[in-house]
Amino acid sequence: MSSFLRYFAGTALSATLSLWASGAAQAETLTDALIAAYKNSHLLDQNRALLRAADEDVAQSLALLRPVIAFAMSGAYTDPASAANGGQNTSASAELTATLTVFDGGQNRLALDATKETVLATRSALIGIEQDVLLSAVQAYMDVFAALQNVSLAENNTRLISEELRATEDRFEVGEVTRTDVSLAQSALAEARSNLVAAQGALATARESYKLAVGHYPDTLSGIPNLPSVPTSPEAARAVAVQTHPDIIQAQHNVTVAELNLARARAAQGPSVTASVGYQRDDNSDEGVTGQIQLSQTLYAGGRLYAAERQAVANVQANRAGLLQTVRLVELDVGNAWSGLAVARAQLGASDQRIEAAQLAFDGTKEEARLGARTTLDVLDAEQDLLDARTARVQAEADQYTAVYSVLSSMGLLTAKHLGLGIPTYDPNAYYNAVSSAPPKSLQGGKLDRVLQSIGRN
């Protein structure tokens, strides 16, 4: 091999050995990987923050239903030389006012309901992100697991061909085979070494993907657990998906938001009533209380209000169509995931049969070659067929696990809660309950600090 290949192979082999060096006591299970992915995901952190931002929209909408209390002070100075008839050259006053929208056709109440529905839609989107994070962790774990086995197979194949080369050289020395047989064995060994380097490179790549998905490089892997249960038919899986998939639930809430916004657009065309009360005092100790009720309605706005209503109607239609399309896409995902699982299961069964046949063929060919009935090329071909069969089984097993979890994801069930990971999960109600009532800062502070501390965001 070239110096570069020797360096790369040595580096990849060191990475391989490091995965196994810590012993079974430190072995990392698939469950461990899922837990780490859930805890370390910056994508989940990002979308949790977006959910908390949506929670604050509820507080702001609720505040529109409450009075606004404002305080104002003013002062004035007049140059005595320019003031008419002399007089006082300074003045000051203070005013405290409270204003409340008494009636607006339900616009503010509808806005509050719409923001609540938006929060629920955002929560569903967060569940969808959680599914993506966990499925990526499963894929990364199985890729590393398969890559480790492929490296082991490639190493074993290299050793076997090295032994075959030595045996061929010995037979050449005594005249049993020709130089061509030796060259064939040497070529096969070079190919085996190349395949080993490729397998080690695939392992290095899989480790990097694992770090991205899980948050750290893989330790010793403990193997793969029992497969989680899935429905017995794609029809049963689709029935569950239509009821539980977060994309469908999110689309349903988006339809409700659009309908509420349509009602708001229509209410904006009606009258509104605002009441205010104020108290004023100046530096002469003159004081007074004022009260005011104002009825207003827009009679003409250049067509803006009716355009807003038509836009809201179009948004309702778009979101309803989007809901139907989402249902179809989810059903499609279930069908594709189920097909992938069926293919993986079939390939795994076929791979077992292929290995059994390839092993018998290799053993027979090797024995026949010893008796002179087969050539070195026949032995090398049989050995390559056996390696290919074992490699195919490794990939088929990894594909089966990924396919099972893909079915769960397509059903909307690939969550930390459903998988029973046994860890505290993010509670979206904690922050929502702390801010949705729009409490004053002095009352909110202590409780909100505790909530933020509990989710690791001080």
Could you please describe the fold and organization of this structure?
The protein is 69% helix and 10% strand. The chain has a single domain (95-418), classed as Up-down Bundle (Outer membrane efflux proteins (OEP)), CATH 1.20.1600.10. The chain has 12 helices and 4 strands, in the order αααββααααββααααα. The protein has 458 residues and is of the alpha+beta class. The longest helix has 67 residues, at 107-173. Helix 1 (3-21) crosses helix 5 and helix 11 packs antiparallel against helix 12. A 4-stranded antiparallel beta sheet has the order 1-2-3-4, with no helix packed on it. It has helices at 3-21, 30-40, 42-63, 107-173, 179-214, 234-244, 246-267, 304-370, 376-411, 416-419, 428-435, 441-454; strands at 68-77, 90-103, 272-282, 287-296. The protein is elongated. Residues 1-27 form the signal peptide. One of its GO terms (cellular component) is cell outer membrane. Keywords: Cell outer membrane, Membrane, Signal, Transmembrane, Transmembrane beta strand, Transport. Belongs to the outer membrane factor (OMF) (TC 1.B.17) family.
